[in-house]
Amino acid sequence: MRLRFSGAGGGVVIALLLLIAFGAWRYDGFLGSYNILTVLRYNSMFALVGLGMCFVIMTGGIDLSVGSVAAMSSVVSAYASPYGWVAGLTAGVGAGVAAGSLNGFIISKMRILPFISSLAVMLAASGVGLLLANNQTVSASYASGFTALGQGNLLSAFKPEWVDGDNAGWLGVALGLLFNFPTPAWIALVAYIIGSVVLNQLAFGRHVLAVGGGEEASRLMGLPADRTVFLVYLVSGGFAGLAGVILAAQFGAGQPIEGIGWELFAIASVVVGGTLLTGGKGSVFATLAGVLLLGLIFTILNFENGMGWVSLSAYWQSVVRGAFLFVVVILQTRLTKSAPA
Amino acid sequence: MSVNVEQPAAQPLRAAAFAPGLAFRRFGALIALALLIALNLAITPHFASEQTLSVNLTQICTIVIVGVGMTLVIATGGIDLSVGALMAIAGALAPAFFTGKLFHGGNLYVNIAFSIVVPVAVAGLFGLFNGWLVSRFRIQPIIATLILFIAGRGIAQVWTNGDLQVFKAPQFQAIAIGRVLGVPFQVWIMLVIVVVAAWVLRRTVFGRQVLAIGGNPAAARLAGVPVSRVTCLVYVISGLCSGVAGLIVIAMNSAADANLIGMGMELDAIAAVAVGGTLLSGGKATIFGTLLGAMIIQLVRYTLLANGVPDAAALVAKAVLIVLAVWLQQQELT
């Protein structure tokens, strides 16, 4: 049952633009730079996890471990943070890569289904995170500049005075967005650009899609299928680790019990972005649009409550997200109906 | 466990090696459980007591009940991620009935009957939704059930406004903590569900059809198996099992918390199914295996906790156990 589907990436971008247009029309301050930057800062963690998941899913696999790997990495990076932001970053990403490698080894060498392997790694990572952290949050160092990775704005040091002034005009607003662009959002943006180049320009990206299209066939064609599979889980673990670093930096502490449900949120983003779960096809930037789309639902809910007409509790957001996923999935099957199943 | 398989493989005589290998394949989970019990009798103080048995059995009841539904779903080559969320829905719904808030039947026992039947039926309806998506739209089970995994708990939270519902309803709570012949009633419920499901899977046409679909859906269709209907039905059964488990959880706690009921249950149930020897790609399933799988996982955890190992380390042990069990099963298949 191989489904063919084109234009999914376009669909999600249109949906995202419609949602933004709706928000801009309905709510004051929705397109204000404060709101935009807050949304980007908070969702950059999910964007990174989603990027790794996108690569995994394009090989036809799944990685359930990303949430707890991010939690474990946040603890590791918090411990390393007094030695500087480089140490914190390296340690967190390293912990994620280690967990991802273990996952990749179990899947590509022991030939255990990705679902089960990553489930086991999920349990193990959350156990290790809790053990390391002694069941508590671990304070990250503010003095070493580590927390700037999550809380800072990369270019703010170069910001001219007049940009934040009252009479700066549209140029001021545009430059304000640039200079106040959050560091974690820069990290996510760069990761997505690299991810897109890797997928579309490099041999590795071709291998990922080939393995997803048919693992046995790609192996017979002489492609390094096992190595490709191993690497995508390593990369996914690495991105989860990076998300963990940002988590620790943003909240000023390593959080061993965070990350619950992140994996499914990431999968939902990838699916909303039109990447096929059967593998073999996908788009990196559509995944980013998927992450922002699901993230914006939360923001819109907040603004709607702010209007005072209705009072929707925060619990509605998961209902709305589920409904959204439902609509997207149904639309996908409708659009693919014409192709031979 | 690993020692147990390596040994026969290392023997020079192939014919002699085959018989223990076969024995392990059929009774591997049972042997592992027996070894665990023997180990505990040797090292864990006060292990051989009624209390130990009772504690461990009540710990696995809901996992096994959900695991039975999950076994059937996995036997068709599917997966059900929504079980925990459906438990939350059933658990959040029930108190409105036995307190008579939503509907008053006039009599306490009528109310209790409603509070059992309606939530379980609602969970079954949500299961039908899963089955409808999988069988009608051919959506991959992991995605189809992801929808309710995300939305289901939200529905339960919206229903209760996220509040903890505390109640005292001994007649309702009897379904979990009442005792028959000294055994908690929830254990009886679990045993009945296990026995019935095992019988259905082995002896009925429906059971054969479930396995046929998991083995090869195209072939099953050509052989005249009503693939859509059977596929749909296993998700309904999984929903019903989740509903029952949700009720047991709130009856045990004498409180319903939509934020917590069934949290992480999907993974516990899948782990029990995998350790029990059901093939995760479908086509081969064992209900008793799931029971054994849940017992093994729980007993490993209990062994570690009873001997002073922290709970977080027990998580790591569980992870190793899952990978090892699935890997060993694959060695037997090749």
Please describe what this structure looks like.
The complex is a heterodimer of chains A (341) and B (334). By secondary structure, chain A is mostly helical. Chain A has helices spanning 8-26, 33-58, 66-80, 85-108, 114-133, 148-151, 169-179, 183-201, 203-213, 215-220, 225-251, 262-272, 284-307, 316-336, and strands spanning 138-139, 253-254. Chain B is mainly alpha-helical and 334 residues long. Chain B has a single domain, classed as ABC transporter involved in vitamin B12 uptake, BtuC. Helices cover 76% and strands 3% of the residues of chain B.
According to CATH, what is the topology of chain B? ABC transporter involved in vitamin B12 uptake, BtuC
Order of helices and strands of chain A: HHHHHEHHHHHHEHHH
The coarse silhouette of chain B is: globular
Average pLDDT confidence of chain B is 82
List keywords for this structure.
heterodimer; A: 341 residues; mainly alpha; ABC transporter involved in vitamin B12 uptake, BtuC; two-stranded antiparallel sheet; 14 helices; 1% strand; disordered N terminus; B: 334 residues; two-stranded antiparallel ribbon; 4 strands; 3% strand; globular
Summarize the structure.
The complex is a heterodimer of chains A (341) and B (334). Chain A is mainly α.
Please render the helix and strand layout as text.
The complex is a heterodimer of chains A (341) and B (334).
Chain A: H1 8-26, H2 33-58, H3 66-80, H4 85-108, H5 114-133, E1 138-139, H6 148-151, H7 169-179, H8 183-201, H9 203-213, H10 215-220, H11 225-251, E2 253-254, H12 262-272, H13 284-307, H14 316-336
Antiparallel strand pairs in A: 1-2
Helix pairs in contact in A: 1-13, 2-8, 2-9, 2-11, 2-12, 2-13, 3-4, 3-5, 3-11, 4-5, 4-11, 8-9, 9-11, 12-13, 13-14
Chain B: H1 2-10, H2 14-43, H3 50-75, H4 83-93, H5 95-98, H6 108-136, H7 141-160, E1 164-166, H8 170-177, E2 179-180, E3 183-184, H9 185-203, H10 205-215, H11 217-222, H12 227-253, E4 255-257, H13 265-276, H14 287-306, H15 311-333
Antiparallel strand pairs in B: 1-4, 2-3
Helix pairs in contact in B: 1-2, 2-14, 3-9, 3-10, 3-12, 3-13, 3-14, 4-6, 4-7, 4-12, 6-7, 6-12, 8-9, 8-12, 9-10, 10-12, 13-14, 13-15, 14-15
